Amino acid sequence: MMKKLLLLFSLSFIFHLNALGQTNEIVGPAFIDSASVIKTGALSKSRLIRHITKPKLYNPRNRGINKVVPGKGLPKVKDPALQSKMGDIPVKAPIFSFDGAVTRSTPSDPTGAVGRNHYVNAWNSAFAIWDKDGNEIIPPSSLESIGGAFNNETDGDPIVFYDEAADRFILMQFSASPSSGSASPPALLFAVSQGPDPVNSGWYTYRFDLGSLPDYPKISLWNDGYYITTNKDALEPQGKEIVYVLERDRMLQGSDNVRILGFPLPGIQNNGFYSPAGFSVMGGDLPPPGNAPIIYLQDDEWVGVNQDHLKLWLMNVNWDNVGSSTISESQEITDGVSPFTATFDGGGFKNLPQPGDNSEIDALQGAMMYMTQYRRFGTHNSVVMNFVVDVEPTAAKHAGIRWYELRQPADGAPWSVYQEGTYAPDNSDRFSGSIGIDMRGNIAMGYTVVNDNPANPVFPSIRYTGRFVNDQLGLMTVQEESIVEGESPQPRPEGRYGDYAHLSIDPVDDLTFWHNAEYFIGVDRVNKVGVFRIAANEPNDVGVVVLVGPQNATLTNSEEITIRIRNYGTNAQSNFEVSYRIDGGPLVTEVFEETIPAESSAEFTFEETGDFSEIGEIYTLTLSTNLENDSNTNNDSIEVEVKNLPPNDIGVTSIDSPFTDENLTSTEEVTITISNFGGEPQQDFPVSYQIGNNAPVTETFNEVLEVGEDVVYTFNQTANLASFGRYRIEARTRLENDFDPSNDAETISVASLNCIPEGSDCSQGDGIFYFELGDYRNERIPCTNGYIDFIGGTTDLDRSQGDFTVTVETGFAEGEREKFSMWIDFNDNAVFEDEERVISSEVIPQANRSFSYDFNIPRDADLGQHLLRIRAGDTNFSGDLNDPCSVMAYGTTHDYSVNITDSTLDIEDFILNEAELVVITLPNQEDQYRVVMETSFGEPLRITVHDLLGQKLIENQVVNDGDAYVYELDMSYAAPGVYLVRFGTRKVGKVKRFIVK
């Protein structure tokens, strides 16, 4: 019989630690209770309840209020810990893999643990047991088949755990509603195998009643208990029990009156959903009792967090006097923690696009992903962990995995960051990670990959990478391997994915990883179990990993060839042959005479050089080792291509500032990124920027730009953008003898606006997530802070047609609440006025479906480029949809551009009536002029220059650059006097006089 104890005292003394100078708090348990055992028989002799595969949405995410501050936090640009290239050390493909669960439950909550002889897999809301060859022993069965406290309980969020020190399996789920018609409150349910064999040993089951739903529970092992973290009371976690500890020793014995203690997490901040983690012991070597760590990320984009860090609590349980047990704020780890952005879409649960027209899926933000593996070594203790981050916190989301190894020099000593990294080696999204560390200190990480790029679509797929203990810190050095490539998208509109993945380590060798995660076949959610290892298991195995040099550059006929050789085996190696061949030519063979330790790498430079001297040629190198008695010849050789680059080829690859904002100034910094595409370093070359058709600003880049390098350059002369309106900015390099002028320049559009209504909440689907007008389409628009600048996106609207159609889609609709309005800034004052509103409060009647709306352009609308603003949102809440500056409680505001044309006008109308021709004298450049004729006419025109005697000095063809015809005119050798410049055709044109002094 359960005995409820009310905590009649509060422990609230305060102490200080050197961690950001904060006051750290120690508190006692907020909850004490106990439960008695219900024993059940062996599954092999029980009547199993068949698992029924049918669509069902389990426990919708328990999410509290949004606690994200839009625009707050670092980084503002790319993740500083980013690993943008894959590792180059090959490992073997998975040993084997098999499909575990096949279900239509949403999400499936894949979990599984490997023991000495079995693999136990669970999901919403069933389980199965396999032998270690992937053969099914216990078929998919409902969780209630375990019996005892699990009778009639199938609410889910299961976790399977293997306690290696005790050689027992544990299966946990929560109960969200009263069981079997009783009035029981929500609870945590546990089943502990009575022996090592989960099939034949029977189970001890327990039900621990709680005051509210223990959402997203995760179990970890410490010496003195099983520790459970939850996403409980997310609205206001302060003072509420979030972490629980159970009497491990008594549970393993199947005792009655097993106690549970619940603790708050003092000082925790979250974004409305969260999942802290307990350090969980791997291997049979348990730590001393006490100081059980709990850890959680703290994102400075959240309310109350001023710097990204890892927050650590220590729990000390006294089972002889439970009231004296404590949890304390221990450390706020900032050293070694690079800024990160752990928030997607303001905290919403639909984040990452899938291929095709499918729902975005949940990135699983705000969670320390399961599990946080702790391992003891001779010289230190290590723990590894991971969580998802946005590596490019701009409108274009890009999910990567931030991972850490923390180390502790001795029991009881502070923890510190030993290494960190953010794994995002290409343009695909990576998330739902699970990380582990083997007995040698090698790290493996499994995760999910998705990419909506039509040129390289990736449906949710399961892959892994890793690193060896002696590799360069902060990098996953192992080549990415696939467990399974997805065949289908996540099919449901809620976007729920997995909720977690689960990587465990085989206790037999403490080196083999078993990873379980979710992918899709049609409407089925499938849990794929992949078995692999990072560590070497063969004595003699070497191979070439990578060509160190030469790399793509301007090359000669005598280039040194340097390779990196990997010893994949367990024996040290020396005195073996290495060779290379260029384009199938003669084989060059030499001897590597040094010693490479086991699981290590070394470089070797051949004495005989290679000829790579032909500019533009791509050479193929075959690089090989030839170790006698090599046990795996498949990894001996690699083929690499090397290109001889032209010496001079640079260009601007992006304009990084200014950007669209309210009330831009007359002193805006212009910052660009310059790249060296050529084969030689470059220095002292001109760079310029130009606002519209004004005179360019030219400066000199004085630093050295290395081959393949990107550098950021800020011009000394600022830009005057003080007037409201749209600006076209072009930036370019002006390198003499540049090989490819087509990559010299980049152009962007920015606007100085009178208002930008940031701060609307779109995490529930409000606002516009699809926009189509003319030949411009914007799909899968992210949420961000409710406002996004898309003014670089434009389409032509022919005013002679009069009527047009715009198509939009929202993620939320209820009755006539969600409405849509649109403006075009016809007078170009960057103020969206009432008379410029072309669509007003149109109802969007249904979510996740496109609706079209008609609008009209006045016949006398000014030709050329204009700003366009769209807004949509829930009009039942605060904010005026039809006030373009009002911040709506729920919705979005987006800005675009439109180019108004008129197909009924002929060239004479454009040139004689609409166009303006000007001649600009360029500053600080004697007798240099810029001839500009602004017009929306698009066909090529001719320019001529005559003197007053009628002699033609120049004739050329000019194309419209988007806003105007522009021609750079050099008159430095012309005689002083008056000249005539003309733009037009042979029949119609416009003429301007100018003077050369």
TrEMBL record:
Keyword Protein transport: no
Residues of the signal peptide: 1-19
Transmembrane segments: none
Keyword Signal part of the UniProt annotation: yes
Residue span, GEVED domain: 820-899
Organism for this UniProt entry: Christiangramia forsetii
Superkingdom of origin: Bacteria
InterPro entries: GEVED, Ig-like_fold, Secre_tail
Keywords, sorted A to Z: Signal
The protein, known as: GEVED domain-containing protein
Pfam families: GEVED
